[in-house]
C-alpha cells in the first residue's frame, strides 16, 4: 500500500522553497519549473497545488503575514499591553523580519494590478489595525495610555509610521538600524500618549 | 540624405511606452519585444538603447522621480516655503501621482535584489530630504515654523510619513482620499511645528 501523501505538508514545503527562490532571484526570474526542481517534484505536481505563480505568491504572502502574527502573539502573551513590542514584532529589525517585508514589497507590486490581492492587502492592514487598537485599549484600561486618548486616529498614524519606516529601513539599513527604528517608535508612542 | 535619428527623443518614447505597458501588465509580464512592437521599432533598436528590462526600469524610475521634482518646483516657484504643497506634490493624491508611485513600488521590488537600484533609491530619498530641509529652513527664516525647531529629525519624520501614507493610499484609496491625505499631512505639520 503506498504511503498516503501529506498534501498540507507538501504545500508548505513548496511555499517555503518558493519563498527562498523568490527572495534570492525575484518573482520575475523564478519559474514554476525551478520551484518544482528545488522541491524534487515534477512541475505537474507543483501546479496541482498552485495553478500559477500568482496562487503561490498569495500563499507566500499569507505565510509571511502569519509569521508576523505569531511574533505579535508571543509579545502579547507576555504583556497584552506591550504596544512598542507589538510594533517591533512587525518592523524589519532583523534579517528574519526584513525577509517578510521583502515578500510584502513583491506582493504590493502585484497587488497594484490585481483587485483580489489589493483586497487581501487591505484585510491584512485592517487586521493589524485591530490588533493595535486592542493593545491601546488594554493600555487605556490599565492607565498606561493617556486618559481620553482617541485610539482610532492613533492606530491610523501608527500604521502609516510602520509602513513608512519599513520601506526606509529596507533600503537604508545603515541609517535605520534596529535601534533607530525602536527609538523612532518610542518617540512616536510618547508623542501620541500611548 | 537620411534624416538624423533623434536618439534622445527615441529613448524617451521607449521609456514612455514601457511605462504604460508595465503600468498595465506588470514588469514581469512585459517583454522587450512587446515594448518594441508598441514603439514600432525592432527589438534590436530597443535593446540598442536599453540592453535589458533592468536598464529600462531604471530610466522609468528616474522619469517618475523627475516628474515629481517638476511638480515640486512648480509649488516652490509660487512659494518657496510651501511645505504642505511640496508634500502634496509627492503624495498619490490623484491618478497621475499614483501612477508614479506604482513605478516606485515596482522599482522597490527590484531594488531589494539589486545594490545599484538600492543606492539609487537612497539617493532619491536623500534628494527629497534635502528639498524638505530647504523648505523648512525658508519657513524658519520667515517665522512660519516654530522657533528653535530642529529640521533634521522633522525631515526624517516627514519622509517616513510620506512613504507610509503613499503605501496605504495606493491600496486603500477609499479610506485615504486626497482630502484624508491632505488632512493627515496638515495635522503632522502642525504637531511638528513646521
Your description of this structure?
The structure is a homodimer of 194-residue chains. By secondary structure, chain A is an all-alpha fold. Helix content of chain A is 76%, strand content 0%. Chain A has helices at 7-25, 32-39, 43-49, 53-78, 83-90, 95-111, 115-141, 151-171, 178-192. In chain A, helix 1 (7-25) packs across helix 4 (53-78), helix 2 crosses helix 3 (43-49) and helix 6 (95-111) crosses helix 7. The radius of gyration of chain A is 19 Å and the shape is elongated. Chain A starts with 6 loop residues before the first helix and ends with a helix. Chains A and B meet through helix 6, helix 7 and helix 8 of A and helix 6, helix 7 and helix 8 of B.
